[in-house]
């Protein structure tokens, strides 16, 4: 028996070792998997934001298994943080591409992994047709991201109904022509006696370009954004933009622009508008919910931007597929769990019902946009209708020839945001009188932009890519209609 004791102790030791090992594995397998999400979008900001509420619901559902932490940072802070994370090879599991880049850049740098294995065709079918496109968010047949929002108007005429009423104007009858806008702005300014003005904008940021391009869309929609896809050329010196700038100059001469507008940020302009310091504000879709958030008591109306005669519709354009978006890090160890969060929460009806209820924007799910029970306030119904009436799908060079995406990456964006001074800064200098010749100044800017595009095409061609300037030209584009897959076929080269 004594001889058997050492053997028994040895067997017991082995048993204890394996038991302990199994116990450790059980503990490890029972630990929550942490998923980190980084972004600069306001839908992550605050515990009551649609993003954070979606995270809270997801964490409850998977308590003890998966926990998501979504970190919001303002744009400049976010860009610095994510660039540092890229440099240190410590990316979060799911992140938005930093400014100056897009999904294609993230894929080219090997920083993103496809999400196809985590989502289904049924999931994709919830989005607007064309939301997933080769060369934009699908690269070499693999899906890397999804559009965060639906169509987004870049210019809306917001009018403060209380200000109009105090000036003796009909608070439910916004101006439809440029002359009517000038007259109403003058009436408001005269009645305001140095305290209230007709117009306000965020001149320190993009307020001037938003204003000018918004009114230019009522003259020639194809040229309003600065690039004309019908000709494949920039159009910053077009008659539409020059006429729109002339209107802005006339409003200045009339004395109806709030004097601080030239140094205001867009958020500050929205607050002053909401507080009744100005009757009119031309800004993008985000200004509605941000102003309502910052000045809840504001009574505002929304309308199309006025046209010269009142007969032209200010058509604006979008492409369903988005070149910017959230991507799964190629370094994540928890891709399956990240995919589950995308499929069941972040890119699902669960999130977008909260999103539309917060009035952030029109969602990329058409069915949800029609649910009026989700609308947070009456103005939102007008907001949705304006998007429906004024937005059309434009052609996209990367859809017809995915290699065009490489040119866009070379430029940073088609707007060439690295070119200084930019369009808004030029408008600022012209409006304040620092520069006198609007036509000459914008012509030189336009020439610089066209040269930038030509140089980028040349650089990409020198790398062996099959691309040429015609890939940015769509002569069959009808500005009044959506550009369809069939339209691409009409201009596709052999």
From TrEMBL:
Keywords: Signal
A family per Pfam: SBP_bac_1
Signal peptide bounds: 1-23
Keyword Ligase: no
Name of this protein: Extracellular solute-binding protein
